[in-house]
Amino acid sequence: MTLEDTACELDAADPLARFRERFVLPEGVVYLDGNSLGALPRATPAAMARVVEREWGEGLIRSWNEAGWFEMGSRVGAKIAPLIGAQPSEVIACDTVSANLFKLIAAALEMQREATGGRTVILSEPGNFPTDIYMIQGLERQGLATQRLAPRERILEALDEDVALLMLTHAHYKTGELFDMSALTKAAHEVGALVLWDLSHSTGALPVDLNAVGADFATGCGYKYLCGGPGAPAFAFVAERHLPDLKQPLTGWFGHARPFAFSDEYEAAPGIEQLQCGTSPVLALTALEVGVDLIAEIGVERLSAKSRALSEFFLECVGALGLALDLVSPANSDARGSQLSLRHKEAYAICQALIARGVIGDFRDPDILRFGFAPAYLRFGDMVSAVRELSDVLENGDWRRDEFSQRLTVT
Ligand SMILES: *Cc1c(COP(=O)(O)O)cnc(C)c1O
Question: What interhelical angle do 282-298 and 300-320 show, nearest 10?
Fold first, then answer.
C-alpha cells in the first residue's frame, strides 16, 4: 500500500474530516502553521460584516448595551473556559498574552508580598517563549521581580522557598515538549509558590484541566489554535479562590466595578472582569468568538486525538521516505504538543523552498523546521503531500537557490 492509499483510508475514517469545509483554505496549500496563525473560519467574514454594518453602522453607541458589546470579554472568556478546565467566571478574553502575563505576574507578586512578606523570585526556563521572559525582566527593572531561569530538567531543584511564582509554558513553542502541569503545580504549591501557565500552544489543540491541577493563573493565545485572526485578543484565567484578593496593576476603567460611575477612586470589579484594562476590542472579539465557537463545537478531546494521529502519520511518512532530519520533539506523541520540530542546518532555506511549493510551515532560529498540526482542518493526505515535497526539496537541493536564503522579518 502506498502512503497515499493509507492517507486516503485515514481521511475516509476521520470523524473530523467534515470540519475542513468550515474553514477557508487556499487551493494547493498545505497549511502546517496553524500553531502560529490559525486558519480563517468560513463564518468569520459574515460575523465581522454584521457587527461592522449593523451593530456599529446602525446601532452606533447604543450597541454597547443593545448588542452586548460591554460583556463581550466575559462572554468569550466563558466560552474558552471549558476548553481549559476552568469555570466560566474564571476566564476573560482581553489584551495580549504579553500584557496578561504582566498583570498576572504582578498580581502574584502582590499576593506573595501580603502572604509571605516579600518573595520576589519568578522561576521559568531559559528558552521559554521570549515575551514570557521579557515580561519578567520588565518587572525586574521596576524592582518588583527577580528572574530565575532553570533548564527544564532542573526546575524542581530550583523551586525553593524564595520562589513567588513558577511561570511555564505548557507546550514549548520550539520543540513541542510538554510540562507535567499537575506535578509541577503541586511541587510549586508545596513550597508556597504560585503557578502561572502559558497555554498559548495548548488551547484548542490539547486537553488542559486548570482546576484539576490546581493552577492559580493562566493565559493563552487567541490567534493560534483558536483561529481568532491575526492579533486576536488573548485570555486570562484566575482561579476562583484568588479572585476576591486579586490586585492587578493596570487599573484601567474597564476593570472598575462600575466604569460608568466615572468615580475618581479605582475600585476593582469583584470578578474576573478586573483583568480588563481599557475598552474591549469589539471587532477583534467578534472574530475570536467565531473561532472559539467552532473549536468548542469540534471538541478538544477529538482535536487532540486527531492531532496525535496526524503527527504520527507525518513521522511515518518521514521514515518511509528515509529523510535525514533529526527529530527535536519528543518521539512519543503523549509527550508533545500539536507540532513536530525537525532539525537541519539549512532549515531556513528549506522552509522557504517548501513555502514556494505551497507547504507552509515555519522556521525557528537557528536550525528548526516547525510543522504544526491544526487538527480542525488538516487531512492525512496533507501529511503525505508535505513530506513528499520536503523529500523533493532535500533531494534536488532546491533550497540552495539564493532567493530562499533572504531572511524575512517574520519567520
Ligand atoms: C504566541 C505566544 C505568545 C504571544 O504573545 P502575544 O503577546 O499575544 O503576542 C506568548 N507566549 C507564548 C508561549 C506563545 O506561544
Answer: 80
CB 286 within 8 A of CB 357: no
Is pTM beyond 0.85? Reply is yes
- Whether ligand 1 lies within 6 angstroms of the CB of 169 is answered as yes
CA 98 to centroid of ligand 1, rounded, Å: 7
Domain end, chosen from 238, 266, 297, is at 297
223 in active site: yes
Contact (Cβ atoms closer than 8 angstroms) between residue 135 and residue 105: yes
Q: Which atom of ligand 1 is nearest to the CA of 169?
A: 13
Active site residue 404: no
- Determine if ligand 1 sits within 6 Å of the CB of residue 352: no
Kindly state the cell numbers that stand for 370.
Answer: 516547525
- Give yes or no for residue 225 CB within 6 A of ligand 1: no
Domain residues for the domain of 264 are 47-297
The whole-angstrom separation of Cα 259 and Cα 249 is: 17
**pLDDT tens digits for 34-80?**
999 999 999 999 999 999 999 999 999 999 999 999 999 999 999 99
Q: Are residues 109 and 158 in the same domain?
A: yes
Counted domains in the chain? 2
Is residue 38 one of the residues assigned to a domain? no
Cα of 221 from ligand 1 centre, angstroms: 6
Q: Are residues 251 and 332 in the same domain?
A: no
